[in-house]
Amino acid sequence: MPELRQNFFTKEWVIIATERAKRPEELATHRAAQPVPAFLESCPFCPGNENKTPPEVMRSPSTVGEPWAVRVIPNKFAALSSEVQPTRNLQHLRRRIDGFGFHEVIIDSPDHSRCMAMLPDTHVASILRVYKERYNALSMDHRVNHVTIFKNHGADAGASLQHPHSQIIATPVIPSQVRHRLHEALRHYDDAGECMFCHMVEREVEDQTRIVLKSDRFVAMEVFASPTPFATHIFPLRHMASFGDISEMELADLARVLRTLLAKIYVGLENPDLNFTVRSGPAEYAGARHFHWYVSVIPRLTRVAGFELGSGMFINTVLPEAAAEFLRKVAVDKVAGAGAGQ
Ligand SMILES: [Zn+2]
Ligand SMILES: [Zn+2]
């Protein structure tokens, strides 16, 4: 029998199409692996081509003789501009703000060929450290209301350049998806006097069926009312409303959990395109008791069709419990980069 499930955070319903359910392995891309060179002369993100990018915002130094480990640059094709002011304008019902904001690119490593799933955990920790530094720096600007950190991996996920990179966009408004979650979280806090994320994480850890992996400080789990197959969330076990509050120990632990999850998806589903986003409360939420940040990883395995666009309601053809069981079993200790130090 098909089942409707409600997302605990957003109250959105999804249809889990058990009648049409696919076995998780049926969604593997079955794409022939294309050899990718470690260095590409024409790539603006490869070392030696630093002058092909806009002037650098920051870099973190390499400990293995590379010119740098992680580099941050302004996006050459920025969605928003830091040169204008966020002046508001209301004319009849038309509200506008001049396109102020920051749009930066974080070049994950000098290596053109190794996506995050293949990098050493210590290097992923360096990338996360840069995320935190830029998140906190951009949040200091009083004109910025929200900072979104995200990755597009593969053309179907929106990546236009192959060299592995992440992006960060700071906007003068709080996006409505984030605002909706903040409202629901506050409503739950008012009703129950607790963080709804902490409550849910505790129950899921007890239940085990949707857990993919757990460390001392983080847990990765399939979403109960997952709108798409293999949508996976990583939650800090310590209550924290803002990503900017993550500690050094937690950064190292998140690097291990995130990279292991990405490697499981890479191996088990044969390198699908994917997006991930750090879903944090705005920086001034630091210390807030009702919201809890997390990382949302969405493999792009299916296309959004008419029903989804027309209703906002998704049909998911893989049971989240089956997805979790599948990912738990994928061995990743042989993936290049696993366990290697840098
Ligand atoms: Zn490159
Ligand atoms: Zn919490």
Give a written overview of the molecule:
The structure is a single chain. The chain is of the alpha+beta class. It is 25% helix and 22% strand. It has a 10-stranded antiparallel beta sheet, with helices on both faces. The relative contact order is 0.18. The model has no long low-confidence stretch (mean pLDDT 94). The site of one zinc ion has 6 residues, from loops. The site of one zinc ion (ZN) has 6 residues, from loops.
Note the total helix count.
6
Spans of at least 5 consecutive residues whose pLDDT stays below 50 are: none
* Separation, N- and C-terminal Cα atoms: 50 Å
- For the biggest β-sheet, the strand order reads 3-4-7-9-8-13-14-12-11-10
Helix content: 10-25%
Number of strands: 15
**CA-atom Rg in angstroms:** 20 Å
Provide the succession of SSEs.
EEEEEEEHEEHHEEEHEEHEH
What oligomeric state do the depicted chains represent? single chain
The biggest sheet, with number of strands, parallel, antiparallel or mixed sense and barrel status, is: 10 strands, antiparallel
